[in-house]
Amino acid sequence: MGANNSKIRRKSSENNYQILSTEQLSATSPGETDTNKFKYIEGRRFHNWPDIHYDLPNDEVEIDRLHLEHFLIRDVWQSNFSSPIHEQLLSGCNALDVGCGPGAWCLDMATTYKNSKFYGLDISPIFPTEIKPKNTIFQECQILDGIPHKDQTFDFCHMRFMFPSFDENQWRTYVIKEVGRVLKSGGYLEISEYKLCENCGPVLKRLLDLRSEMMTNIGRNPNIASLLGEFMGDTELFEEINYDEKIIETGSWGGKLGEVARDDIFTRMHAIKPALMNHIKYSGLGITSEDYDRMMSQCIDEFNEYKTYFVTCRWYGKKL
Ligand SMILES: C[S@@+](CC[C@H](N)C(=O)[O-])C[C@H]1O[C@@H](n2cnc3c(N)ncnc32)[C@H](O)[C@@H]1O
Q: Where is the Methyltransferase domain (predicted)?
């Protein structure tokens, strides 16, 4: 057993967390473990909210990945947002980050825009609670139960990489409307996602296809990033819906940024491994854990060989 696992065990006895194997997870009915904040699968820590299908971990490895990804994305865009909201943020306004994770975006923004207040919401309490800028407020919350703020509270609402969090119907009929509700008239909503991968090698394509298949099985639309502008339009809450995209050259062929992007993808593939192995097992695909690790390593070589790149996009619109 590695150091990581023994650490998790220690935490487990101290905090009464539960360690579940993949088999135990699939045998667990909703609500059966909801007295515990977290659950553990194959050495990774996950949220334990009933009825939420978000399948990425929330442990230290994932927290580090999300922090690193924040700076990668900021470098790719050369900015933290595209909405024309800079002046308002400078003079002081309220901003909300929905699904803030460890709070990297809020913390970075709060340091730049000291007169504004940044509120972060997430199901996992992985954001800082004590050592943080004064103008940040984080709260544990399940968005699908409603955002715990009054109508028209925020000048800017931001959401990033929430694709695995909601199914297509939730995006279409609830999530954007609910975020729109807490946005002030004249305020901006901005949603940022990964859109697609181009020039994939065969092994990466296989892994991405498996991921899409698994997501489709639980109602997620792997092409949701392309539809978000349409969903924003459907709410009839926004004018001026804008779209922009950037490519992220992945692998050392893309220079230093490409290497960071490669490491991010590699860590993300590790992060989705428990969920994907579960899908692989129940689909009878015969890919073992060792096969999966081998495929991940092969992807690293493919990035340079095929000149793989990912496309990331931002949708943003002004509330009427
Ligand atoms: C891929 S992470 C992105 C985090 C952050 N937005 C960023 O860009 O670094 C998605 C986050 O959404 C959170 N999340 C998933 N479903 C949620 C829900 N129903 N309500 C609130 N947060 C949720 C997860 O806990 C996770 O921290």
A: 96-187
